[in-house]
C-alpha cells in the first residue's frame, strides 16, 4: 500500500500502530476530517517512506514528538491544521529537508514563545517560495523587508495582525506577485508612486482597515490585470484617479470610508461588477 486516504469518514477512537507500522511503502496518509480524539501517534513519524501526512480537522491532543522529523527523509507535506495540539513546535522539524508544505493553522500552540526560521535563506533568496501566509498570527511591529526576497512569490497574506509602519516598497518589485492581502493591520504612510511598474501579473490588492494616507497613485493603472482592489477604511485623500478604472479586468473596487474627492459619471462604473465609493 502506497496511499491510504480515509478522509471524512467519521472515524473515531485510536490510530493503532499495528495497522500502519507494517506498511513500509506507505507514501501518503490522509485521515483529515474525522473524529479522532487521541494523542498524536508518534509511530506515524517513524514511517520513513511517508511523503505526505494529513491529520487536520481532528481532535488530536498533546504535543508533537520532539524527534518528529528524524525518520522522515522524504516528507514533503505535513498538515495538522484545525486540531487541539498544544506545546512547542519541535526544533527537529528542520530535519525534514524536503518539506514543502507545513500547515499548523488554528492550533493551540499556547506555549510558543520563539519561532526560529533561521538557516532557511530567508535573509537571502528563498527561490521556491510561492505562497506566504502569516495571517491571524498576532505578529506586531514593522514588516521585515527580508521576507520579500523570493523571486517566485505569487501570494502574500499578512491580514489580521498588528503590523504597523510603512509597507516596504520592495514588495512592489516582485514581478511574480498576483495577490497581496495586508488588510486589518495598522499600516500607515503612503503607497509608492510607481507601485504597479513591476507587477505585470497583479490581480488583487487588499489594504482595507489600515491607516494609509495621502493620494492613491495614478500609476495604479499600470496593473493591467487588476481584478479586486480594496482600500476601504483608510485615510486616503485627494482625487480618485480616473486611471484606476481603465483596467478591463477590474471586477470589484472598494474605496469606502476614506477622504477621497471627485465626480464620476455612471460610464466609469459600467465595466465593474461591484464598486463601493
TrEMBL record:
Entry membrane topology: Single-pass type I membrane protein
Keywords, sorted A to Z: Cell membrane, Glycoprotein, Leucine-rich repeat, Membrane, Receptor, Repeat, Signal, Transmembrane, Transmembrane helix
Family: Belongs to the RLP family.
Coiled coil, from the record: none
InterPro entries: Leu-rich_rpt, Leu-rich_rpt_typical-subtyp, LRR_dom_sf
Cellular component terms (Gene Ontology): plasma membrane
Localization in the cell: Cell membrane
SMART domains: LRR_TYP
A Pfam family it matches: LRR_1
Record protein name field: Uncharacterized protein
Keyword NAD attached: no
GO process annotations (BP): detection of stimulus
